Amino acid sequence: MPVTVNPAPALPRAPVGSGVRGLWVDAFGPGLKTRVQVTQMVEDAARMGVNTLFVQAIRRADCLCLKASVPRATDPDLEKGLDPLGLAVRLAHARGMRVIAWISVTGMANTAAPNTNPAHISRTHGPDSGAASWMARRADGSWQEGNDGWLDLGIPEAAEYAIQGVVSLVKNYGIDGVQLDRIRYPDGDVWGYDPKVLARYRAETGRTGTPGINDTVWQDWKRQQVTNVVRRIALEIKALRPDAWITAATITYGAPPAPGDLAAFRRTRTYGDVLQDWPAWMQSGLIDLNVLMNYKRDAVGEQGQWFDGWNAFARGVPARIDGLSAGVAAGTAMYLNGAPVTAAQAQRSVGAGLGWVGYSYRTPTLEVYGAKQTTAQGLNSLQKLLTAPGAALASPSPWKEKPPTTRGLMGRITGTPVPGFRVVEALQGGQVVAYSLTDGGGYYGFAALPPGKTEVRVSGQRWVDTVPERGVVRLPDLTVRDLKPVTTAPLPVMPAILTPARP
């Protein structure tokens, strides 16, 4: 008689990004400054069981590399002729590790360590550049946050400069993806008052006067500028390399919302203070992996519960309209904790189905940060705990997973003096499945649409094309000739919701 063999039950698919075992390598101390440092860093990471290096490339509109659209960093400790990013990619790939280029998107200047290149934007578009300044400013015109100056993403030229800096790394290096850091406004929600930004805000919204810091229309408009840049970077990179990972280092201030409670998220400082709406980025396919900057100390008050709560909230963000979900990795502050706490946080993160990334290689323990241990001592103590039997990094394996977003659609409207803030609808099967808003350059796009025939409508214009299984479709420019300013208040960024866009 024939023997019937029942097929083995399908194993559940591991959550996206759950295989990440990462290490942030910052550019503000040893690790990337010389060939010897880069070589040692890669060896140390491999010994710890790390499979992904988040290597700081663009720091403050300058690069620890030789082939970017932004100038090279003018750090006196940086070895002459060295390309730290290129060397890190070569050495890490040889060890089976991925390299994600870590970019401070809005970093622009630091008064304590200024870039000395005359072509650097802190000199051509800095605080003394008058109408050509690209700096985020308070209502009184001041621009410093500590020693730092930030780009204002509400200035289209500044946003474009930042976007092209990120894209240039993907064009010129064999990196496995990018990480967007400082993709937000500075703390305090008192920023955005450059005259050019205010003029654009009034033109796009039809509002008059100078908005107060608590004006919700003003807050929504600025938050949209941040999302616009994330969207444009994601689509430009996916057009070049669909399998490149788009990740973001995101804010988790204070107590977490309950899992699935997006309304509660909109009451957090992340949403209302630094104007970062990362759940919307996850739902609209703009990021493949959300690396939470979940910098909590287990021994301080409720911070241990907050750490677990933010992880749970991020894991509970609803899926996209194409049925896929962005991944989540817990980024832990190794410099704020002793090695036992870091190992425990890593274990809880991995146990919850998340990836794990530690900050940072240079300061791997609280004792190193407080100058009570050398970096080598801190790395050694941490490595023993992270790679012990049953620990989070005990069984190192390469992270070979592909990102959930490999396709998209993008375009631009022209012919109008007010290109930004136009509602763009995407229709499939005659139904509106998503919408987005144009940015200050007229760009729009979608990253999580199901493949197939898609109609795009904006300001009375329409175009039909096919979203492919893989790759990004660039639509021809759509000419809009109405001369009326847009008077619609900002829409919440929910392009993944299967409901008609509002007018």
From TrEMBL:
Which ranges carry the Glycosyl hydrolase-like domain?
20-297
List the InterPro entries hit by this protein, alphabetically. Divisome_Glycosyl_Hydrolase, GH, GHL10
Q: Where are the transmembrane segments?
A: none
Q: Which UniProt keywords apply?
A: Signal
Name of the featured protein: Glycosyl hydrolase-like 10 domain-containing protein
